[in-house]
Amino acid sequence: MAVVTGSRLGLLDSASSNGQWNDWQGVVDRFLEAVDPEQREVVSLALADPYGAGWGLRLWVSSIVWGSAIMPVKIPVSVIEVYLTDADVIPLHDCCSCGLAVPVRPNQCNGVMGEPEKIYFPLCPSCDSPTGWYLCRSY
């Protein structure tokens, strides 16, 4: 059951089994600090709307909460722009050096396990290293 926490972003959180709020809001706050200031408001709104565009961004934040993605220090404007303009992208690839999660559009026929339909960043926009499917975890 989701309840409104009254946070400044108006995000939905859910209580954990011990009655404490989960780490979602804290991760969202840190994530927004890594977003370019000119993109923060629209990213905040995308993260706050569970039924709107921005599900790729919500998946990225969720994967940070669950420990399967790395919290970036700074997110390139170009990466956020892809998440905001292509409603079908999800964070399936990451950088082999810095671990930045980068968006890809999954294949419509084979889903997330197939070759992506669109790879936006074969090289990391932060450090220019190769990106790929869970590439940072393979080193």
What does this structure look like?
With 139 residues, the protein is an alpha+beta fold. The protein has one domain. Helices cover 29% and strands 14% of the residues. The protein contains four helices and six strands; from the N terminus they run ββααααββββ. It has a four-stranded antiparallel beta sheet with strand order 5-4-3-6. A hairpin with a 7-residue loop joins strand 1 (3-4) and strand 2 (12-13). The radius of gyration is 15 Å and the shape is globular. The termini are far apart.
Question: H/E element string?
Answer: EEHHHHEEEE
Helix content range: 25-40%
**Over the alpha carbons, how many angstroms does the gyration radius reach?**
15 Å
Major β-sheet annotation: 4 strands, antiparallel
- The secondary-structure class comes to alpha+beta
